[in-house]
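Pilot study result, target chain (305 residues):
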Amino acid sequence: MDPADEPSSLQDVLLKAIKGVREDVKDVKEQVANLKEEFLKRSRHNTKAFSAATSNDAAALLQQLGLAEVNGNEEEQIEKPSDCPVVAEDFDYSRYPDEDTGTPYLLDHHKKQLQKFGVRFGRGFFALYDLHSERSMFSFVTKSGLEYSGTADGCIGGHGLMTSVAGCGSYCAVLYEHVQSPEAKAAFRECNPQWKVEGESAQRPCTYEAFKGQAVTTHVGAAASSNFPLMLDLTDGVHHHLLLVRQRELVVWTNLDSTTAYYKQAVHLDEICNRYSALHPSLRCVLEELPDDIQAPLKKIRRLV
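Predicted structure:
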């Protein structure tokens, strides 16, 4: 060793050792940071919001669950009684600048239309819950490791529950997914030019095919948490598309008018009242109390959670 390189004191030896340790720690920290970044990239890659789901995602999910997608318009037409005097009203989304602003008013509209058909709200019956401000009410993971998560705009569930998965999410009977149509948005902007935004992307029309991925994944995520048979209404306030899991099927009724859609929802809610209110005054039940045709597909869905 060159005498010039030889440490002159014990202090120099300790300083060199400390410097080496610091460099080692720095290397470890860099490696940990790189691993963390890689983990976050993979986590982001394996997570998808309900709103980002595609029709192909929906088809793959239904196949995994063994659920056949059935055209309810052809196989199970909704027939209102000939003497039904009730006519439901449409909702005018053109009065609001965007979907979120109009959502609380559309939820109140749902409630008023269902009350026309005899649906009871209040203690011992149903309540309407606003979910659109919740960041992620529902989630599930597929066999491939892809996690879907998100929320809906609102739901009807048992009365007196908290706005959470363990609350109204566990006793949800009807789920609402809202869409403001391009026509309604354009009408509002025309009457309120101060709201116009240059370069704003075009909105999709409210059709089942356009929102199939979002509707199916939202329905599955909520059905995995709910103890009630769950119906989803995808609507722009005028056109309604209803989804319902039953036996080995996902039954879909598309392009329903408001009267037909709310009538079907009222029948669905009335069936829940008749099945559970005698045993559970607050409309709460457990999965084992559901009929076998509804219980089996829900159990399979729950295995995803």
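One observation from the pilot: The two ends are 66 Å apart (CA to CA). A full batch analysis is planned for the follow-on phase.
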